[in-house]
Design a protein that fits this description.
25% helix; 163 residues; 5 helices; 9 strands; alpha/beta
């Protein structure tokens, strides 16, 4: 997650997904099709990617509402999820997922990590991007994540440290 645009959400998501075992499938909404059930079936043993959870269909794979709920319901022990969205923190991200898209707490609880990115400089032409924080999610109650900060970027020391 990140705010504003151009913070590197898609780039980092793809870099993380490229570290999966080579035999693990990776299917992306819109790139590999629109049929959520088919994509979930093809993702078994690997990952399904939502390019962005967004009300506006600004690009292929930007989805909202029912398709998001179907994907969250379908992920589990045999299908993992990677998703990007615009939010300044875990609370706002889960507000989008749970209240905005109607994903139930039990399904939203399937998210285990939230990575927050930050762009430095003017948002349209960032001079640098950093991973600002990584949170572990241990559950979701009433649409709010039970989040624990694991790592953060220390801006003064310009380094990433354990919380």
């Amino acid at each position: 997650m990140a705010v504003p645009r151009l913070a590197g959400k898609s780039t980092v998501l793809h870099a993380m997904a490229s570290e999966r075992p080579k035999k693990a499938p990776l299917r992306t909404v819109a790139e590999d099709g629109e049929d959520v059930d088919k994509l979930l079936a093809e993702s078994r043993g690997g990952y399904i990617v939502i390019p962005e959870i967004s009300r506006g269909a600004h690009a292929p794979g930007y989805i909202w509402g029912a398709p998001v709920r179907r994907i969250f319901k379908g992920i589990g022990a045999d299908v993992s999820l990677a998703v990007a969205l615009h939010a300044p923190g875990p609370d706002e991200a889960f507000d989008i997922i749970c209240r905005g898209c109607g994903v139930p707490d039990a399904d939203a609880s399937k998210i285990s990590l939230v990575v927050y990115l930050r762009s430095l400089g003017h948002w349209e032409e960032p001079t640098r991007r950093v991973v600002e924080a990584v949170h572990e999610i241990s559950g979701v109650r009433d649409g709010r994540p039970l989040a624990k900060l694991l790592f953060h970027w220390d801006e003064q020391k310009d380094r990433f440290t354990a919380a």
